[in-house]
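subagent[fold] <- orchestrator: predict structure for attached chain, return tokens only, no commentary.
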Amino acid sequence: MLGLPQELFTPIFAIARITGWIAHRIEEIANKGKIIRPGYTAVCERQSYVPMEDREY
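subagent[fold] -> orchestrator:
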């Protein structure tokens, strides 16, 4: 729709993502190589574990 040449699709994609890639790298360096995972807060009630063979689908 913008009339951009097809050979610019990948570079434009990379330019748009590079800030995130740099932020990830800085975070990796700051955390000294630890695995980076986002924080998680459950929004459902706690459920007890049900073994696979006892689960109903």
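orchestrator: received. Logging for downstream: The mean pLDDT is 89. The chain has one helix and no strands.
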